[in-house]
Design goal:
This protein is an all-alpha fold. The protein has helices at residues 2-19, 21-41, 52-75, 78-87, 91-120, 125-152, 158-186, 191-216.
């Protein structure tokens, strides 16, 4: 399973590196969304409103939806599906590999969006660095949930069906991530939000390992 996961993750990341969709389309979309958020708040209210963490996660979820759609578009081609079936790859390994690749892509986008949040929304740098571990945990949860629901929504109309299915499932990650980020900015305790993020991550990983093969056969 681990070997299959590495193979699938490497394949997805190589495809992304060659296409550069993340670099030239997805990340610029996130930056533009942050710019619009900063303009909506205004230069005097952006730093004082405390909206930075929430806007950061909201834009991150929108970026994640684009990445998830892109990730599963690769698997919808007839050649890829037939190759996976012929090779008899472990579905659990495929799930973990796609989730790992998505995590790497999300982390790359999150670094840019975090810098944008600091520059455009005036989110404090020190608090953002304190929030980095909780952000990484939230990204892992988003990657696992996105891979699972991406398989469920794969097929025609996936671009519109995916948000309807995935956003309610991602809501706990969005809320807990924002609260953990805000707590890091204020110096408050983080453990309860870490617990929610870790529980959601374990749940989505377990469901993905158990159900991914069934969902792919739909």
């Amino acid at each position: 399973m681990i070997r299959v996961a590495w193979l699938v993750a490497g394949k997805d990341l190589r495809i992304e590196a060659r296409s550069r969709v993340l670099l030239w389309q997805v990340v610029p979309f996130g930056v533009i969304a942050l710019v619009l958020a900063g303009l909506a708040l205004g230069p005097t209210r952006a730093g004082a409103s405390g909206a930075g963490p929430g806007l950061f996660y909201l834009v991150l979820v929108l970026v994640a939806l684009l990445m998830i759609t892109r990730s599963h578009a690769i698997e919808r081609s007839a050649g890829t599906r037939s190759s996976v079936a012929t090779l008899g790859l472990d579905p659990a390994g495929v799930f973990l590999g796609k989730a790992l690749a998505l995590l790497v892509e999300l982390a790359s986008a999150a670094i840019v969006l975090g810098a944008g949040s600091i520059l455009l929304l005036h989110t404090p740098l020190a608090g953002t660095l304190r929030a980095a571990p909780s952000i990484a945990l939230a990204l892992a949860g988003l990657a696992a949930a996105g891979t699972l629901y991406g398989a469920l929504a794969a097929g025609e109309g996936a671009a519109t069906l995916l948000p309807i299915l995935a956003l309610p499932a991602m809501a706990p990650l969005l809320v807990a991530g924002e609260r953990a980020y805000s707590a890091a900015l204020s110096g408050a305790g983080l453990w309860q939000w870490w617990l929610i993020l870790a529980t959601a991550l374990v749940a989505y990983l377990g469901l993905g390992v158990l159900l991914y093969g069934v969902l792919e056969d739909f």
